[in-house]
Write a structure and sequence with these properties.
This is Diguanylate cyclase (GGDEF)-like protein/PAS domain S-box-containing protein. This protein has eleven helices and nine strands. The chain has an eight-stranded mixed barrel, surrounded by four helices. α1 crosses α2 and α3 packs parallel to α5. It is globular, with a radius of gyration of 21 Å. The structure holds ligand C2E and calcium ion (CA) (3 copies). One calcium ion binds next to loops.
Amino acid sequence: AKSAGGNRFELADPEADARAITRHGLTTALPTALERGEFFIEYQPLVHLGDGSVRGAEALVRWLHPQHGVLGPDRFIPLAEHTGLIVPLGRWVLEQSVRQAREWRELQGGAEAVGPLRINVNLSPCQLTHPGLVQDTVDILERAGVEPDALCLEVTESALIGADDDLLKPLRRLAEMGVDIALDDFGTGYSNLANLRRLPVSILKLDRSFTQSMQQFPADPVDLKIVEGIVSLAHSLDLAVTVEGVETGAQADQLRILGCDTAQGWYYARPGPPERLHELALVDATG
Ligand code: C2E
Ligand code: CA
Ligand code: CA
Ligand code: CA
């Protein structure tokens, strides 16, 4: 090996090195993983805070890696974004999820008490700038026979900070069609609240950090004020508020009192297979 660059080839941190190797290995394995069907989706219920009914689910992708077992999205979504694979992968997730929503709706048979189950799908910033987004979404909904208002696309607040009109145009088109757009991880991005008016969003997903601060009793008074403020602002702009990361009944109570509309978290259910979601919705509808 060359020695000219000083300690460039020394393994000062074997763990970091192992991580880098894995990262490289995972990156090169990504395209074939999609072809081989190694990805799968878990669904986590979205629960109405007022009456506890299951209203829909968020789709969360996982990778069943032949050597490493099940990998969470934090391990491979950044790599997929970096290599561009996120576009076909994201399209696959959307298609699977919309088909799943269709299946739930068929199982419900129109006899549901609270309306047909809806599906939330995460959208990476790279998909947002991809020119095929609107048409792909239209095609997927049509192929599955699912109305646009059954779908909610979740975009992180940080992806839309300082967004210009070109970036917002596809989201506006989708919103006009009836697709809901949710602002994910809201409250972490320091976005200008007044800016919200400009964005074609109909749902704010309050970041988990706020839910966590509702764990102590009494909760931090400043956090309470902030959540109270966000909720009242959201409602005055006709936006619904979803909270994520609800792990305890105390958090759920607190967030309900603060006026949040929908909740998601381990307290209700961990992400799981599609049958589980349907069971939960059914149990809930029959009593
Ligand atoms: P996210 O969109 O904020 O999703 C919520 C994350 O919180 C999920 O992690 C979920 O499993 C986890 N979670 C749910 N309830 C609780 C709880 O009560 N407590 C705690 N501590 N965590 C909870 P997950 O599945 O590991 O996903 C991580 C992130 O990966 C997601 O964050 C999302 O940004 C991204 N992601 C997942 N699926 C997709 C996808 O299909 N496409 C894209 N672009 N990103 C995805
Ligand atoms: Ca999300
Ligand atoms: Ca989130
Ligand atoms: Ca998050």
